[in-house]
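Extended Data, panel c. Modelled sequence:
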Amino acid sequence: MAGLGGQMLSKAGAGRSRRYDQGIWLFDQGLHGPAIAEFQAALIEENPDPMTERLARFYLAEAHSALALAWLAEHDGTPAEDRVIASLREAIHLSPNYADLQFHLGSAHLSRGEFSEASDAFMQALAINPGYAKATLALGIAFYAQGRYDEGLSRSQFSLSLDPTFRRTAFNEAQSAHAAGRLAEAESALRRMSDTEGGEDSQFHARLALDLFRRGMFAEAADEYRLAVTINPQYADLRNQLGAALLELGQEEEARAEFDQALAINPGYAEARLNLGRTLVRLNRREEARAAFETLLEQDPASAAAQEAIVSLEETAPGL
């Protein structure tokens, strides 16, 4: 996932801001660096309306995230450059409630041997999504690398219960090496745990699905998300993204079920709760929709999206 992907935000700002429109065009071409400059200009120079401002901030965060993730993918195994860290931190500043961004920041720090900073980022990811298997394992690795061996092994073992595709054999090798005092070998084995059994990775399907979603191929995206969910049914982000694709196909009940599943896994998942509320509006279940938006506001009082959704409900159904 490229960062914030799957969020149900339209490009409705188009036509209201020249710099925003140019940023969207560049973003769609994959020109994320120039897109960042245009979104920043739209926010600073053009005094956009609230909806365009929200969209510009979203795509600005997404562009920063995409730049960083593209570098990490191209330089796998190489210590992340300062600009990668800076891009991820800026994306988090703009969109602080996304566990994936914190996970990628932690991974970048881990690649540089900055284990304390990595641990902090992974713990932030887990505060947002306690069931995040990869963040749990990564935190275990970071702890172990810092010499917090018992915590590292405990976290790594717990990750096996969150994602059954993680390699238990690698964890057993880590335990044996640790018991024999071969600490570097043990850490290496922990890092191999995420080399999933059978070689099939839910994130492969998720990345393909996100690309299809962005190209408007929603049925194909839903099929790929279903494959990803079959491999890793306890990953809330995948449930949310499948729901978003189903909603684009007009399959509201199926989408609602996926958002419900995402929230059962991670009750604090703001994006899934927002998507659930919007889906309930489309199903004309307005009281339930309002309850979803109000719960989101309780969790995040600064949520402009939840405030906007409640105002919209009041305008279309006064007194609800």
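The chain has 17 helices and no strands. This feature is highlighted in the accompanying rendering.
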